[in-house]
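Retro notes
What went well: the complex prediction finally ran end to end.
Inputs used:
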Amino acid sequence: MRWLEPLATAACVLALFGLWEAAVALGALNARIAPAPSTIAPMLVELLGRGAVLKSLGVTLKEVAAAFLISVPVGFFIGFTLAEMPGVGAVFRPLVNFLFGVPKSIFLPVFILIFGVGVEQKIAFGVFTTVFVLILGGISAVESVPRELITVARAYGASRWQVIREIYLPAMAPILMESARLGMIFNITAVLLAEIYGARDGIGYRIAGWGESLQMPQLYAALAIVATLAIAVNELLQQIENRIGAWRQRPA
Amino acid sequence: MTQPIAHSAVSVRGVTQVFTVDGQTTVALAPTDLEVPPGQFVALVGPSGCGKSTLLSLVAGLRLPTGGALLCNGEPISGPMPQRIGMIFQEANLLPWLTATENVAFPLKLRGVPKRERLEAARRMLELTGLGDFADRLPHQLSGGMKQRVSIGRGLVQDPGVLLLDEPFAALDEQTRMVLGDEVLKIWSSTGKTVLFVTHNLSEAVYLADRIIVFSARPGRIVDDVPVDLPRPRTFSMMSSERFGALKDRIWAHIRDADH
Amino acid sequence: MLRTPAQVRAAQLSLAVAILLAWELLPRLGVIPKLFVPSLSEALGALVEYRAEYLAHLPATVVEILVSYAIACGGGVTLGMLIASSPRARRMALPVLRSAYAVPMVVLYPVMMVWFGLGMGSKVGFATIFAFVPTLLTTVAGVASLSPNLLETARAFGASRWQRILYVQVPASLPTLVAALRLGGALVIVGVTVAEMLGAVEGLGFLITRHRTLLNSPGVYGGIILVLVITSSHEVLLRRLELRVARFREA
């Protein structure tokens, strides 16, 4: 009977959309501020056909990708360094934890002061927000490598490089992957926030614009696009994470 | 008094090991001498912290002694010699992302043996240790005893002349321990390897070994060298014989005193 | 050189002092433009200079935080407990929650502004949505890791669902609950502040944005420091609570 559960979940989600549709039809929901899903769906198709919209989407995707591609190596490198040098790591740990606990979003105005509202600002803000997740992930990954396995490798004659390649990398891969996935979530949020706050282009900028001009179907359709893309990227990364981490014991 | 024999399988001469942590100095091993002839099965026993595991890791080449020298077949031990000395650890310490076969093949991989060759050698080793059906399982799918068997296979796959076992059965239940102990004996008697076996379990030591080296703690040093003159092959019923008990008593007397 | 805990402590303190010194001196010396980062004393000076203004806007922010906290954290934790009490509900909910967590909730703020305008309503609405899913997810996932034995034993004694939840699940899940509150609370504070930054007529975030448009960076940093004080206080409070709960569990 378990296999019915995903179907039941999907049915619940669809039912919610159905309720929404019904509420608008019955006048319980103001169609101006919450148009029915049946009006949003065609708008979605239309938006995806508009070149300008696709261009904005492209800008956002580029910003997200660039910020991610910078944050991952930088964050992991710092994380590995802090973990491998116990003295230095111990000194910087409280700082890193403190910085991680500080909400990065409130620094957005500072980034506008420094970078203006262009693409570089979005990327810089994205990196600023994401890199801490990856630093912590890097530290955690290195610390998770069981020391006994390093001893085993050495007992069997492994060179330093072999220890890194045969022990460290496979042991760390699942945690690094999970950290990358989480980082991406933070990254997408940061870039979109920056676009909504102040930008010249990007899907977030358009969403803010549609909101201001009360073009609700466009707004909701764009939300649907963004949500779908975000979920899709997350799923993809989750699948990779599951594949890489298949050897980890499933919690009972 | 042990006489140095030309070409002992393992020679320990005047070896000391001193650890300094945060300004505090601990003498793990006071000057120790030991000569192990080829093919001998030696058990190392003693209370916790008496240096027996330290000595084993010195023989394995995992550390260098603070003083003295260690030799394997006359050659100085300055680092791991995986083709001459195979090590089996207390926790099986299998790589959790590798199958049983790949785990056994691991030492060969480190040496650069091509994939097909090393996987075949590993599979044969698994057949020998009775794990042929589990060759493609991951460690988390294996029981404790099976994992230890894989670990033993890994230690044997390069056919080293010396086997070091560091409390390999400590984490296992008694039945598995006895079964695996018999298997180790079988391997030893059919291959003539030299075995150094660290254990806390006195019965296990007397049952398995030709010779028992007893250590005392802080600083670690050898306080007795007990030949075990029970006939081979060893049987379960020997464990209730008087001779067996007398040997155990002799060892226990040292350990008990050492705790004071 | 960095061996003993005392040495590490000393190094940490030196690091903290060095950072504060750099914050003060680098802008002063012109190494970092004052527009980007004003010196520490200037930022603190702005706090003092504009204190009337900050104090006037603080209540709005605090009220929004409290209301959102009650709805998002209270609601999230309660709903989370309910879902977690049924293995089936948990199995069905977790994938949806995990996907929802991946959606950047910030994009919902324009919707909130349309629905509720620029007043407190949109801030509360946004912060609630922003914090709700993570709180819910943390609760459900955390309770799920509890030993099933406890619940089984309760059921064997004939406890009804409500009794099981109240008398077994809640006490046993207290660490998870506190962790969820800690996360949710932080998100509520951030959500309110960000919403105020994006479009508001009052509040700390509104002030930060206003100072930014006036290129008054000491004012911006002063506001940021205030928000940091609020988040840090919240964090410290919940850490204490976490410790208290952990001790209670050992008993």
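What we learned: Chain B has a mean pLDDT of 89.
What to try next: split runs per interface for comparison.
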